[in-house]
Amino acid sequence: MKDILKEALEFLKTKGVEYADARYEEHQEEEIEVESAKLKSFSYSQDKGVGIRVLFDGGWGFAATDTLSKNSIMKTAELALEIAKESAKTAKERVKLAEEPTHVDTFKSPAQIDPFSISKAEKIELLKEATSVMMKNEKVKRAVGTMDFRKIHKVFVNTEGSDIEQDITISGAGIVAFAVSEEGFQVRSYPSSFGGDYATRGWEFVQEMKLVENAEKVAEEAAALLSAPEIEPGEYDIIIDGQQMALQVHESCGHPTELDRVFGSEISFAGGSFLQPELLNKLKYGSDIVNITADATLEGGLGSFGYDDEGVKAQMSYLVKDGLFVGYLMDRQTAAKLGLRSNGAARADSWSNMPIIRMTNINLLPGDKTLDELISEIDYGFLLATNKSWSIDDMRVNFQFATEIAYEIKGGKLTGKIFKNPVYYGKTTEFWNSCDGIANKDFWHIWGVPNCGKGQPGQVMWVGHGTSPARFRKVKVGVAK
Amino acid sequence: MRTDQFYRNLMRLLHDTFPGYEFLVTATSTKRDLTRFANSEVHQNISQEALRMEGVFIKDNKMAVVSSGDVSMEGLKKLKEQVDEILENTEKLNFKFKMPPLRMEYPYYMDEEEMLNVHPSKRRELFELIKSIANENNLKAFGYVANTESEVSVMSTSGLYLYHSTTYADFNTVLLNENMTGSYTSATAKNFEQLQIEEKVREIVPLAKKNIPDEEIEPGQYTVILGPEAVADIFSYFVYGALNGFAYETKTSSAVKYLGKKIGPEFLTFKDDPEDERQIKYPFDSVGTKRTTFPVIEKGEFKNILYSYQTALLFGKEPTGHTVSMLQPYMAFVMNPVIDGGNMAKEELFSKVDKGIYIHRIHYMNIVDPAELTLTGMTRDGLFIVENGEITKAVKNMRFNVNFYNLLENLKAMSKETYNIAGSFTAFIAPYALVEGFNFTSKSDH
Fold first, then answer.
1. Cβ contact A395–B445 (<8 Å)
2. Which residues of A touch B79 (CB under 8 A)?
3. What does the alpha-carbon distance between residue A333 and residue A342 come to, in Å, rounded to a whole number?
4. What is the pLDDT of residues B395-443, one digit of tens each?
5. Do A461 and A236 touch, CB atoms closer than 8 A?
6. In terms of domains, do B417 and B356 share one?
7. In this complex, which of A90, A120, A121 lies closest to B42 when CB atoms are compared?
């Protein structure tokens, strides 16, 4: 396959292209869903194809096919060139790509135990056991357990001589309890909501979750939420747990630092960004303790890889340093517009899509406090845990999140009282500037978010967020009904 | 297009590769070409072609769900290994999986010749048309123009064989002024002409120019007019959050409280309507269930929810023709959503508002409380004050939190005119709506 891809690039060079790359990808996926101790669905998917991207006279063209004969791939290259020529007819200026060394390399994600080597029966059994435990609680009427495993093999070559092969393994799992009463229903999830937690790791990642051991508590909390009160709307000091912090970082830092959004590429769909270039190195994005990085080199992070999908080596860079907005997520084209090098954020979710700027692992670096210390400095407030819903405006300013549960804090201690349907909202920079405590590295975990949507045609990307619980002062909690 | 014969050959190949198995398979081939632009310049121009086969394979009432983009002999053999491994390792279903009955129909050829093998120059011409309208008005254009060729075939060992081919076009455009605020339009149609790009883009020019918000409103309850884009988005979340039969049967849906009840005014009818001329018709769903006009809300009454094929088997119901993917056998969705025209002309609807707010489009909705179908979202691409029936000035965007059923209680009018829009999930036909007591809860900066 690689030889055919290289031949296609040679052909394109003879046609005078400025740049071209070709990417072959093979995907395998196994998804398991168990509902209340019975197998609901076991699915397996396989897929492979080639995408070719061409830059000609300032115009981009991309074509993709799953017919993998040499003839078909050469035709796909011709089609990409034809499309690029049409784009060029409307181009005002030549596209400049930021410099990137040529890479000839391989990368393999750090799976210790290949999840596809574990028997399907063993995986099902684990979910059955976990959901059985949850169903023992009489108020729990549905108990759901899911697992998702993927293997991705990628070959990337470009006209600059890069030649990269990558093998990435992804594992994810989670459990959910639905407690139901006449009045309605409540949900608790573990370790994370919306499919659980994910990493570029193997079966060992699922084993470490201890789904069965945590099932009882999940069920108990779902049941207890049925009769829990709601928080009286007002301003409170809050601690946000690590899992919800992952979503907070995702929506209010990850997306607004995508430089293609800043330049308007997503205006008609995903939206723009308030982080315009004139604010770079000037805007006080958060308090002094807020440090946010983009780091695709974190071992096992869901947004980790060896090279992005335009052959840029994985790296770490700061987006926010000591509270100051200092960086963007970039690809080679947008980085060049700012006179910078790409920090390796061009990613495609499949061979059939062209890479666009996506998050890698976007991380709130740990602080210096324990969770108990964060709690002890609150007179009255709440610890909010596990994302339930998210929404943020098209410029990434006004956000609102709901979490599954809120734990009351009074006099510097958790009281044991819980509240249902908690909602908090605010504006991005006001919120991050109210951060006055971040839990230390012992509480830090890289959460996997496997469902980040962006682009037209739509792409669903897997990204990571290293976070620990953090404290924010005077946040608006609860909304008027 | 691969044509009907390709899928008949695939069915024979499946019979040869999976002897002794029952199967129900959907094969879909899609070619989608899309030109995307920002700041009145093309920044993405693509062509994607892919075949995908999804299906369930049954033996001894055990089930394997599989999907493959590779339907070569080699690909199917590899798939069979996985099917066998799944069947060996799983238990029997707790309900009897029944194959759909034998049914063979003539192929539905719904493709239009001019929409086959569209040259990228066609999309460039359309982009240049949009750009010229933007330039004439000192605005900048952002959006895409796309064309799609698609074939779907459903086949089973019980003798089901169906095929349809279709083509369609879609686009969206945001026009932004010097303040980088503006307005939005979109459409999906059977061909480029029916998209009415020029008419639709010109229609939003006045709003795009007017949308320079230097004032803001306070959170609170307002009388609002929702534009068709906003109406479609809200009803899409009703489909997503309330109509799934599996959630209903397991009492984890807001429909448990409201199905069968009067939830809106007489003039409100919302249906899945493959027969609507403006829709891209899906004549059958992904398991071959014939699709006909299906009322969800009729004259204000919440009449029906959606049962996928497998949910229906599990709970002893009839499948409703809304199975969207064999890979998600319990999911069901409205594929051709249509809200009927309402009780007054658009002009009259606006004239009913002495003081209110016009919401053109909504951004990033989500379900805050699934038990009650409480929704939140932001306004975007134009939030305007309406005075004496006229849009007078722009205000900054607002966040809302509304309960869907309360919103229908407060629905006072819908326009007789309905509009074809691209929609967040699928193409949608929707009117303008006049709603009282719409709950804005916080402000944004732009």
1. yes
2. 44, 46
3. 8
4. 999 999 999 999 999 999 999 999 999 998 899 999 999 999 999 999 9
5. no
6. yes
7. A90
Taking an 8 Å cut-off on Cβ atoms, the answer to whether A425 and B441 are in contact is yes
Nearest CA in chain B to A429: B445
Contacts A354 to B, Cβ<8 Å: 44, 46
For residue A191, say if its preceding peptide bond is cis, omega within 30 degrees of 0.
yes
pLDDT score recorded for residue B425: 86
Helices (H), B217-300: 228-242, 245-249, 255-258
For residue B444, the distance in angstroms to the closest alpha carbon of chain A comes to 5
What pLDDT, on a 0 to 100 scale, did the predictor assign at position A58?
A: 93
**Average per-residue pLDDT for chain B:** 96
Name the residue facing A46 among B79, B219, B443 (closest C-beta): B79
Q: What's the residue count for chain B?
A: 446
Q: Residue B1: which pLDDT band, with cuts at 50, 70 and 90?
A: confident
Residues B81 and B113 in one domain: yes
Q: B120–A272: do the CB atoms touch at under 8 Å? A: no
Please give, rounded to a whole number of angstroms, the shortest distance from the CA of A330 to a CA of chain B. Answer: 15
Mean pLDDT of A213-232: 98
Shared-domain flag, residues B301 and B162? no
Interatomic CA distance for residues A90 and A83, integer angstroms = 12
Question: Which of B185, B204, B223 corresponds to the end of one domain?
Answer: B204
Backbone Cα Rg of chain B: 24
Domain around B421: 213-446
CB contact under 8 A, A391 and B365: yes
CATH of the domain at B152: 3.30.2290.10
- Interacting residues of B127 by C-beta distance below 8 A, sequence separation 6+: A90, B35, B37, B42, B141, B145
Q: Which of A29, A104, A64 is nearest to A306 (CA)?
A: A104
Q: How far is CA B25 from CA B49, B171, B219, B332, in A?
A: 20, 31, 51, 17
pLDDT of residue B175: 98
Contact B401 A178 (CB under 8 A): no
Residue of A nearest to B48 (CA): A64
Q: Which two tokens stand for residue A55?
A: 């830059």
Are A66 and A186 in contact by the 8 Å Cβ rule? The answer is no
Residues in chain A: 481
Q: How far apart are CA A173 and CA A163, in angstroms?
A: 33
- Work out the minimum CA distance from A376 to partner chain B, whole angstroms: 30
Interface contact B219-A480, CB threshold 8 A: yes
Express each pLDDT in B280-298 by its tens digit: 999 999 999 999 999 999 9
Tell if the CB–CB gap between B329 and A392 is shorter than 8 Å: no
In chain A the domains, ranked by start, together with CATH numbers, are: 2-225 (3.30.2290.10), 234-477 (no CATH)
Nearest residue on chain A to B91, alpha-carbon basis: A39
Q: Which residues contact A10 (CB under 8 A, 6 or more apart)?
A: none
Instruction: Give the ipTM.
Output: 0.95
Q: Which residues, listed in sequence order, are joined to residue B420 by a DSSP beta bridge?
A: B429
Tell me the pLDDT tens digit for each residue of A281-321: 999 999 999 999 999 999 999 999 999 999 999 999 999 99
DSSP secondary structure code for residue A230 in this structure: B
Contact B399 A63 (CB under 8 A): no
Q: What percentage of residues in chain B have a pLDDT greater than 70?
A: 100
Chain B residue with CA closest to A480: the answer is: B441
3-class secondary structure, B182: strand
What total of structural domains would you count in chain B?
Answer: 2
User: Is the separation of the CB atoms in A91 and A84 below 8 Å?
Assistant: no
